[in-house]
Amino acid sequence: MNSSIFRRVASTTATLSAAVLVLAGCSGSTAATTTEQGFPDTITLASIPGENSTDQRSSYQPVIERLQRETGAKVDLVQASDYAGVVEGLIAGNVDIAFLGPFAYVVAGVNGAQMTPLGAVVKNAGATPGYHSYGIVRSDNALVNSLADYAGRKVCFVDPSSTSGFLYPSAGLIEEGVVASGSEGDISASVTPIYAGGHDASALAVKAGDCDAGFAFDTMVDRTMIDNGELQPGDLKTVWTSETIAGQVFVANNKLGTDAIDKLQKIFTESMNSDAFVADGICSEECRITDDHAWGVVPAKDSDYDGVRHVCDVTGSEKCRG
Fold first, then answer.
1. Contact 228/199 with Cβ under 8 angstroms?
2. Whose CA is closest to 42, among 59, 22, 62?
3. Contact at 8 Å (CB) between 150 and 219?
4. 214: which strand partners?
5. What's the rounded Cα separation, in Å, for the pair 146 and 135?
6. pTM, whole model, 2 decimals?
7. Residue 195: enclosing H or E segment and its boundaries?
8. How far is CA 167 from the centre of its chain?
């Protein structure tokens, strides 16, 4: 079993550390038992980096509760310290269900992950999956008012495998003539890249002045960090907004089998939303899931991510190849 994913997993709590140790010690030859519903006794759910581990665990709790009720399995949430950890976990077979950004989804497929989309998140009931990347600077920074002004400055990206924190920003910088391509060499020749590791960390680094400018996804800046007090309205200004990016997506490892995946797709697209959580007593009032504070999950298919693949072609980023 590929152990590199576990070196990337943030063991910030005793529960998480225990889960990682169990996974690290497993063997592909171990006979697995299943629940009455046809799922493994333990389902490993891996999440991409976002906010701090305490908030992230809380934001996934309704998803965990729903899965445990519907599958009869225990759900272990593994919070990876970077996108590569989740991708490697899928490829190695250590992850059953993952929540991925569009870029990570495409990269996982390129590198051989056998997976099926379960559904993409939407911010509100009836909405279409999708979100935007923001180019952000301090509001009192009069020198940076567009991506063209990023040239020669310290720029916070999120992670080399982040859709809205690296891939789309790279394409935007290319279109503005700031960088020649999405390669690390060309980016470093034009700006000083700093990889913050999370969207919130990127925004905070810009606020603190550690980066002259940066990138983060829309609701992290507009809602999440304001709601939790990390940002005040007016701390940052948005100088660039990307085109709509395909929604972040839950995927199932194909090793679960067709029957289990069909059931999971129904669970995610019909019952993994705030209204259903309240109706079934999982939440006493409106609750939102993931770090995107999403209302819930709607159907998604592989072709929805062709736009990301196109941006990969535009940037020529080696990260698109894994």
1. no
2. 22
3. no
4. 136, 156
5. 8
6. 0.73
7. strand 192-195
8. 13
